[in-house]
Amino acid sequence: MTVAVEQEKEMVNGEDTGSNITPSDYGCQILQENTTLENANNKSLPNDAILIWYVVDGVEMVDLTRCKKTSQLFDMYYDKYGPGAVKKIDFGYGQMNPRLWAIKPKTEGKKK
After folding, report:
1. Residue closest to 85 by CA, chosen among 50, 111, 61, 106
2. pLDDT tens, residue by residue, 15-65
3. I need a labelling partner for 74 at 20 to 30 A (CA). Which of 4, 34, 80, 88 fits?
4. What share of the chain in percent tops pLDDT 90?
């Protein structure tokens, strides 16, 4: 059988296929998963971070993610949690330049 046929059978049978979805497949990075707005309201985070509200089993959750396109972010959550799960997508509160955000400070070596 081909992979597409197997995936279609799993979807018909109601098996959860969202567990094997990784953010890197969509070009996304999850910074904070199932967080609160107080934790996400951190100005030291990159300014391209995006907040996404979604519902899983009747419980509303918020994630802080980075992604090149909002459509890729939506696709990832749609494929992972199904139709109707994504409720809102909004900008994050970070003010750090994304190029400088993940850089670690240099350690000072011996002076000659």
Report:
1. 61
2. 444 568 888 889 999 999 999 999 999 888 999 999 999 999 999 999 999
3. 4
4. 52
What total number of domains does the chain contain? Answer: 1
| 47-68: burial string, b at 16+ Cβ within 10 Å, e else | ebbbbbbbeeeeeebbbbbbbe
Q: What is the pTM of this model?
A: 0.71
Q: Please indicate, yes or no, if residue 12 is contained in any of the structural domains.
A: no
In-domain check, residue 101:
no
Q: At 53, list the tokens.
A: 């509200």
Sign, CA torsion 28/101/99/40:
positive
Phi, psi of 31 (to 5 degrees): -85, -45
